[in-house]
Design a protein that fits this description.
InterPro entries: TPR-like_helical_dom_sf, TPR_rpt. It holds the Pfam family TPR_19. By secondary structure, the protein is mainly α. It has a domain of 190 residues. It has 29 helices and no strands.
């Protein structure tokens, strides 16, 4: 579906004027194009629907054919076809198209028209069809729906109210209506509808809908009871086990949560929801990165999971190097910094090309969901040659003219330079990937860069990321990181080392690091200043929308 957000598009009123001119001249095809454009810009404007009605009258039985569905159909044409289908006595088909438009552009009020909100529609649809439509809306909407987009779903909630009024004891309808109400913030209503649905027709899915509504209402004990009843209905639905475990963990009952998730894994060790939840909860228990690495491995080996999971990103968010850069630490005045070998005289690389600088500005960022996601994002630098990548390190380009770039350039230019270093080193990971790792250019260059103080941490992070995405290189990377950590730890005996805590966090993010090095890293990371509580966290919280994982739930 094409949204048609061309900045040069005409206002709805001008599109309508052109549509009327085309109607007057009998050019129905061009009139349809302009009506569709007007609908895309003002989907609830009465004048648009008046003109569409004129077009329908002129086109007669063939009016719907003026808005054919093709592989890439303009969204205004989809909505116009929906209204014509409803007018032709086929409202269920029209609703399907409106829901598709809502899924494509959720901020627009595609359904806010009289035929959708009329009580008569609920009677014509019947409870099963109404429930199906509400399921489609829930599947298309985030959970919860952002406050800014809830008004666009008001017509669907009105449809739910009308349908429940006509069919007050239909369990499936009440449950789907509850799911929609909960998503748009009508939590008390969601609880009432779900409770009525369970009383009318006890079922697993009904109890799940009730459990979700009660959980949103803060009634955790009752929510858990409902979810346990859902398990009693169907002990093989392991997604409910994961829901129970997640709810328990969210309320500080981690031991109970782990018991539930282990029960699920006993039934099916490879069930995706249970595996994702289990690794997340185990990481919450002991902060051992091996759980997250195992989760990343599972996600890589099971690309066809039942739905998108956010557990790995949730665990990595805000954590040094797992989800964001650490700020540049300034050494105390007068202290030695023997953490790196003395730089030998090396020729300075020439500045990078304009294309290299442009591409780096497009990807460079102080935060990422998790290391594999950072690796995937850096593929945009894959075709840069080695002089360009080294040139980016030696001559960092200016920050981009974005909100984040302006703040970094104005408040913390050193952090922007750090971002450049990190992403240039990640770009090096994509350099000549056909070369076997042990003798590869990317390994050699990154290993050399770990001995260059200004980019030590960025190069180490790239090596750590390589170990996340390629299990075969983990022993080698773990050895490189352990050696670097040992050098830093030895240097701290002579005095404070600015990068010590950061390198320690990098070590703690390294797959398969030996236990002795883990102990050293935890000691260094826990030293004063090891937490890196800097303006970075506040900066990111202001500029970035928090990541909200889509949790498994009812449609």
């Amino acid at each position: 579906m094409a949204e048609g957000t061309d900045d040069r598009a005409l206002p709805a009123t001008e599109e309508l004027a052109l549509a009327r001119q085309a109607l007057d001249s009998g050019d129905l095809a061009h009139a349809a194009d302009h009506v569709a454009a007007a609908l895309a810009r003002a989907p609830t404007l009465p004048e648009v629907h008046e003109t569409l009605a004129r077009l329908a009258a002129a086109g007669g039985d063939d009016a719907v054919r003026l808005f054919p569905l093709q592989h890439h159909t303009f969204i205004g044409a989809v909505v116009a076809r929906a209204h014509l289908l409803a007018a032709a006595g086929r409202p269920a088909e029209g609703l399907d198209l409106l829901v598709a438009a809502t899924a494509h552009a959720p901020g627009a009020d595609w359904a806010g028209v009289p035929w959708v909100t009329s009580p008569e529609l609920a009677e014509r649809l019947g409870p099963d069809q109404a429930a199906r439509v509400l399921m489609q809306v829930c599947a298309a909407a985030p959970d919860p729906v952002p406050a800014s987009d809830r008004a666009a779903l008001a017509a669907y909630l009105t449809l739910a109210r009308n349908a429940v009024t006509v069919h007050p004891e239909h369990g499936l309808l009440l449950g789907t209506a509850s799911a929609l109400a909960r998503r748009v913030g009508e939590v008390p209503l969601a609880v009432r509808w779900a409770a009525r649905g369970v009383r009318a027709a006890p079922s697993k899915i009904g109890e799940v809908w009730l459990g979700y509504a009660l959980r949103s209402a803060g009634r955790t004990r009752e929510a858990l009871a409902a979810l346990r009843r859902a398990v009693d209905h169907d002990p093989d639905d392991l997604a409910v086990y994961a829901d129970i475990a997640g709810t328990l963990a969210d309320h500080g009952r981690l031991d109970e949560a782990l018991v539930w998730i282990e029960r699920a894994l006993t039934r099916n060790p490879s069930f995706d929801c249970a595996v994702h939840t289990a690794h997340r909860l185990r990481f919450q228990r002991d902060a051992d990165v091996r759980h997250l690495v195992a989760l990343a491995d599972f996600a890589r080996d099971h690309p066809d999971d039942s739905h998108e999971h956010g557990d790995l990103a949730e665990c990595c968010r805000g954590r040094p190097w797992l989800g964001q850069v650490t700020p540049v630490a300034s050494p105390p005045e007068g202290t030695r910094q023997p953490a790196t070998a003395p730089d030998e005289a090396r020729p300075t690389p020439p500045p990078p090309s304009a294309d290299a600088a442009r591409r780096l500005r497009q990807v460079a960022h102080p935060a990422w969901p998790h290391p594999p996601a950072a690796y995937d994002t850096a593929v945009g630098l894959a075709t840069l040659d080695l002089p360009d990548l080294l040139g980016l390190l030696a001559h960092p380009p200016e920050a981009p003219p974005t909100a984040l770039g302006r703040v970094l350039a104005g408040q913390d230019p050193a952090l922007w330079v750090r971002c450049v270093q990190v992403w240039a080193c990640l770009g090096l990971l994509h350099h000549r990937t056909d070369e076997p790792w042990a003798a590869s250019t990317r390994r050699r260059v990154l290993t050399e860069l770990t001995d260059t103080e200004e980019v030590t941490e960025a190069a180490l992070f790239a090596l750590v990321t390589a170990a996340w995405v390629d299990p075969s290189v983990r022993p080698d990377v773990a050895g490189l990181v352990a050696a670097r950590l040992a050098t830093v730890a030895e240097a701290t005996r002579q005095g404070p080392v600015a990068m010590a805590a950061s390198v320690a966090h990098l070590a703690l993010a390294t797959p398969d690091l030996d236990p002795g090095s883990v102990t050293v890293a935890r000691t260094l990371a826990g030293a004063p200043g090891g937490g890196h509580r800097s303006p970075l966290r506040a900066l990111l919280s202001r500029l970035l929308r928090p990541f909200r994982p889509r949790l498994p739930g009812p449609p």
